[in-house]
Structures are given as C-alpha cells and as structure tokens.
Write a structure and sequence with these properties.
By secondary structure, the protein is of the alpha/beta class. The chain has 2 domains: 123 residues; 280 residues, Alpha/Beta hydrolase fold, catalytic domain (Rossmann fold). Helix content is 48%, strand content 13%. A 9-stranded mixed β-sheet has the order 1-3-4-7-6-10-11-12-13, with helices on both faces. Helix 2 crosses helix 4 and helix 10 runs parallel beside helix 13. It is globular, with a radius of gyration of 25 Å. The protein starts with a helix and ends with a helix.
Length: 447
C-alpha cells in the first residue's frame, strides 16, 4: 500500500512549475556553463575559442529559424507561426545540442577523457530537458508526470451497459428532483468507441464525463458539451491540459450535482492528421460528427436531444471545429465555445495550399464550407458564440474579432474574452472557462 501511495504521489507531481521546473533550470544552467567551459578551455585565454562559441550560438538561432520556416512555409506542418516562447525554448535546446557536439569535438579522441565526454553529453541532455519542460509549460498540455506518461487517460474505464440510456429512466432536467439519499461527490470518466458507421471515418476512442446527477436512479436529461482537441493532438488532451473532470466536477458541486455530459470526440483520426473538420478528400470528418457522433450520443446516453441544450467546444483546431458546427449545423448545436479558434480551418499558412491539398484547387468548394459563408447566408438568432483567446496570441486575436463580427451579422449573441498575459495555451482556457460555462448554464436553465 505504501508503494502504491508513493507511486500515486509521484504521478501527481507537477512538472510545469515548482521544484521540477526549478531543478530543470538549475541543471540546464550548470550544463550550459560546463559546455562553455569545455569549449573555451583553461588558461591561457584564446580569442579563437570565443569566436567558435559565438558562432555556435548564432548557428543555433539560424537553425531554429530555418527549421521553423521549413515546418510552416514549406512542409505546412503548422498552419500558423509557432509562438515566440516556443521558438525560444526550442532554440535553447538546439543550442545545447550544438554546444555538446562542439565540446565533444574539442575534447577529441584522447584517452582518459571519458569523464569529460560524459559531462558534455549529460550537459547537452540537461538543456534538451529544460527545452521540453519549457514547451510543455507554455502549452500546459501535461501538468503532471501522470499526464506525461499517459496514466490519466489509461485509467479511464469503458462505458458500461448500466450507464447507457436504456438502463435507467430519465426525465427532462426542469422536472428532475435530486434524490434524498444524495449523489456521488464527483462525476466519472468513461471511454467508448463511436463508430463511423455512416461516414466511414475512423476515429480514436471518445472520452465521456458523467456528472453526479447522471448516477441517480432517475436521471435528468442533461445538456451536452461536445469537445474537440487541437491539432496535433489527442482527445485525451482535454483530460490532461484541459482538466475537464475537475472543471465539470466544480460546476456540478455548485449546481446540486448537475453538469453537462461532456463528450470529447475525435474529428482528426490521428495526432498528425488535419481534416479541417470538413468533408474533403482528406476524410469525412464533418459527416462523422453530424451523422455518427451526435446520433450515437442521443441514443446511448441520458441527454437532452434539442439543439438548445447542445454546445460544441474546442481549442485551436477544436475551437475552429466548434465554430463551424454552430455556423453550419444550428439544428444540432445552439452554442459554441471557441478557444483560440481560427477564422477558417487551414492546412498551411498559404490559403491556396489548403485549397489545393483538400479541394484539388476548387476555391469555390472551400469557400462554401467556411463559417463566413454560413454566417452570411443564415440567421442564428437565439444562438451563442463565446470566443476566448490569449492577449499574446496575436494572430488568433485578430481572427477572433473577425469571427465575432461575422456571427453578430447572422444574429448570434457573441461574447469575447481576451485573457491578459496568456498565449496559445491550456492556461488561457483555464482562465476563460468559467465565463463560458456560466453563459451556457444560463441558457440551459441551470441556476
């Protein structure tokens, strides 16, 4: 039991801040100093070695910029420039590796230098460790060691038969009375495969949050929060970086055990895929959501079926997808929470590349699917679009303003939050979440 307790404590260890972050900084600082010492050597001082050290440092900057340019402009791995903080952290990791290689070259093949070689390798590794820690801390994707190694999602059980809609009676939420014997203190997570029967889309398993009220003998027909992750990403990102269970447990504790059923679904298919959340030559992601996911949830879970009790939500790619669902399918969702949503989905920074890769160059076909077209051609009175973006996430700030104006033109109620001091990260979501979920609660009649 003591061993299990110690392992649980280890898995809960925070790695984005606190002692672990401090240790990474100390090790990397010492490692960088050690590498510089090896490269510069002892007395007498030789200016040529300082020139080498300066060249290595400038080379790290140039290499970081080149790799970033190749990933964004050429390979289109990312449709937007990476945040400056991420580039700086990545550049520091590259600097450590270049310093390590230079130090090993400086040491050479001479005998008796294994200790120095080991020091150089360990020092370079310490800079790479800090680089990874800094990138993870910026995005906030894996706050704890358990998140990093996959324990958080691995412990989620399959959805049991007794939790299906058919296993218990249900009444409309407005008519539901909390049982006298009380409810569980917290909700529970489950996982389930939602097959792409109609669309043919192959998705990864979904994660489902069931609030305490769901475990009553007579269940309320609860509202639904349909969630999507960023790209590259996994549905489990909403469990780790998004801390979905903690967020909805807190909401349920404030509302007599009632909270939305949160369903994290996968319109990507794999971490590296980008389907644009549309039906294209890249896959029928939109049909999967509309014709497979939504019917499965309504048939399988004790939830309300009217669109006024459904909201889509997501981060980055997922936020863009959430906005698209509201714009294109108000018969399914009446509200959307778009965290760092794009004005329109993208495979590359160059719009023409997106059209070429997904629509064989047919710009009209792409234009007919983006939110701007649907906001301009239909009325969305009674709908809500909540947009949140970090104040330092400059590209997405501008795109949020455009989306907000488009949705207002269609008659939707629009709320926007610019989270001061935050960038493109899960911490931004943590700070904006409360505002968004309160707006949904008002619409769902959860007092």
């Amino acid at each position: 039991m003591d061993a299990l307790y110690k392992m649980d404590a280890l898995y809960e260890l925070r790695i984005v801040d606190g002692p672990v972050a401090a240790a990474c900084w100390i090790l990397a600082s010492c490692g960088t100093a050690a590498l510089c010492w090896v490269i510069l050597g002892g007395a007498p001082f030789r200016p040529a070695r300082l020139v080498v050290l300066t060249a290595v440092s400038l080379g790290a900057v140039a290499l970081t910029a080149t790799i970033h340019w190749l990933l964004v402009e050429c390979a289109s791995v990312f449709p937007e420039n990476l945040p400056g903080e991420v580039l700086a952290a990545s550049g520091f990791g590259l600097l450590g590796l270049l310093l390590g290689a230079t130090a090993l070259a400086r040491i050479g093949p001479r005998r008796g230098a294994w200790g120095q070689r080991g020091l150089a390798v360990a020092s370079a590794a310490s800079t790479a460790l800090l680089s990874g820690q800094m990138v993870n801390a910026y995005f906030g994707l894996s706050p704890t060691l358990g998140d990093l190694v996959g324990r958080t999602s691995a412990e989620v059980r399959l959805l049991e038969r007794e939790l299906r809609r058919s296993a218990a009676p249900a009444v409309p939420l407005a008519a539901w009375v909390p049982p006298a014997k009380g409810l569980p203190h917290a909700g529970e997570l489950r996982t389930a495969d939602i097959p792409g029967t109609a669309s043919g889309f192959r998705a990864r398993p979904a994660y489902i949050y069931l609030p305490p009220a769901y475990f009553a003998d007579t269940r309320p027909e609860l509202p639904v929060l349909l969630l999507m992750s960023g790209q590259p990403g996994n549905p489990s990102d909403w469990l780790t970086g998004g801390r979905l269970k903690a967020k909805l447990d807190r909401f349920a504790a404030e509302h007599a055990g009632v909270a939305p059923v949160g369903v994290v679904v996968d319109p990507l298919g794999s971490p590296s895929a980008n389907t644009l959340c549309m039906d294209t030559k890249l896959g029928a992601a939109e049909s999967y959501l509309v014709h497979d996911v939504v019917p499965w949830i309504k048939e399988s879970l004790s939830v309300a079926k009217g669109p006024e009790h459904w909201a889509s939500a997501g981060f980055s790619f997922g936020g863009t997808c959430a906005v698209q669902l509201l714009a294109k399918h108000p018969e399914l969702v009446h509200s959307a929470l778009g965290f760092a949503a794009e004005e329109e989905p993208a495979l590359a920074k160059d719009r023409s590349k997106t059209i070429g890769m997904a629509f064989d160059g047919d710009a009209a076909a792409f234009d007919a699917q983006v939110p701007a077209h649907h906001f301009a051609t239909r009325r969305l009175e009674g709908s809500l679009l909540f947009l949140a973006v970090g104040s330092k996430d400059h590209d997405f700030v501008g795109q949020a303003r455009v989306l907000g104006d488009q949705a207002r033109t269609a008659g939707a109620a629009v709320e926007m939050v610019f989270v001061q001091g935050e960038g493109h990260s899960w911490e931004m979501i943590a700070k904006a979440w409360g505002h968004g979920i309160r707006l949904l609660a008002e619409r769902w009649g959860i007092g």
